[in-house]
Design a protein that fits this description.
This protein is an alpha/beta fold. The chain has one domain: Rossmann fold (3-Layer(aba) Sandwich). Helices cover 37% and strands 23% of the residues. It contains 8 helices and 10 strands. The chain has helices at 50-55, 59-69, 87-91, 98-116, 133-144, 161-168, 198-211, 227-241, and strands at residues 10-17, 25-32, 44-47, 76-80, 126-131, 151-155, 177-183, 189-191, 194-196, 215-221. Helix 2 runs parallel beside helix 8 (227-241) and helix 6 (161-168) packs parallel to helix 7 (198-211). The relative contact order is 0.14.
């Protein structure tokens, strides 16, 4: 049974105006840690598929437990919502909305959050997180804006050929720290672009990242391409990046 203390948390909803996105705005949900104090400053995690991270990943509950019981430094979570019908176009590098989304994220969303919340503005205190295509767009954000983002959490990243080509030609990635997991039962997963072996995609991406000197944590374990697998992995992934006080 979930401890009731983990359910007492603050989640704020915001809408970011945008000049880059066709709909001219994007909704956020922001988790503020227990004892949030605007005088202090906090590490921040930016999650693609924000609604899913909160509803299916239960990331706010996990974060609260890690802060209260495991002594993790309090941190803020920003979940960025996405229209599932436009998700592939925004998250894949060859999608027709990808460039607009990347620019929105770095040039509009980031300043919006940093003006309103006590988040740290050091790239090493910002983490990009995502599942499947959310994992790959998080990496592409870091590759496009390395002065802003140097930390990526990828849960079963959808590193299709176009992504692997970008990684291969990225040059020196010694500034990048990436956490990658993939489920061994993801070897024939059907996507809107066809059936893919996500284990092979992640192995290839890992090899290319390491070739370019990125710091890679990589693990394969029993799991399917779904939140039932990723939710259980959030503890370890968050603990990898967030310091114990």
């Amino acid at each position: 049974m979930t401890d009731e203390r983990y359910l007492k948390r603050t989640i704020v909803k915001e809408t970011v105006p945008s000049q880059f996105l066709p709909e001219q705005s994007r909704n956020l949900r922001i988790f503020l840690p227990p004892g949030y104090n605007e005088v202090l400053s906090y590490p921040v995690i930016y999650c693609q598929d924000g609604e899913d991270f909160f509803n299916f990943g239960r990331i706010a509950t996990t974060a609260t437990r890690l802060i209260l019981d495991e002594g993790l430094e309090p941190f803020i979570i920003v979940g960025v919502d996405v229209d599932k019908k436009q998700r592939t176009e925004e998250y894949t590098p060859d999608g027709n909305r990808h460039e607009a989304y990347i620019r929105f994220f770095a040039e509009e969303l980031l300043p919006f959050v940093e003006e309103r919340y006590a988040v740290r503005q050091d790239p090493e205190q910002r983490l990009l997180a995502g599942d499947s295509l959310g994992g790959s767009v998080s990496l592409h954000l870091a590759l496009s804006y390395p002065h802003l983002f140097t930390r990526v959490m990828s849960l079963s990243g959808a590193f299709y050929g176009v992504s692997q080509n970008i990684i291969a030609s990225a040059g020196d990635l010694s500034w990048l720290k990436i956490y990658m997991i993939v489920g061994l039962q993801e070897d024939a997963y059907e996507t809107d672009r066809g059936i893919f072996d996500f284990v092979a995609l992640n192995r290839n991406a890992k090899a290319l990242l390491e070739l370019n000197q990125a710091s890679v944590f990589y693990e394969e374990k029993d799991g399917k391409h779904q939140w039932g697998f990723w939710q259980k992995e959030l503890d370890q992934a968050l603990t990898y990046f967030i310091d114990v006080e």
